[in-house]
Amino acid sequence: MNITKILILTTALICTSAAAQSEPVKMSKSGICHAPNSTYYMKTKHFTPYPTLKDCLNAGGRMPKK
Fold first, then answer.
1. What pLDDT sits at residue 63?
2. CB under 8 Å to 58, separation ≥6 — which residues?
3. How many domains does the chain have?
4. Closest CA to 53 of 25, 32, 17
């Protein structure tokens, strides 16, 4: 029974991670990096996509102040 719970949780985590990785980090025209879980991610329309937050920051972006 415990093994079943572990397998279900592991599968859920893998699916969640895969979904999160499919959305790019958005660097806005003002140079702010918006991760998929950030406040203004969905509102950011004009952006340069990056596969990871680290890539966005290395490209000269910065984290949002909020």
1. 94
2. none
3. 1
4. 25
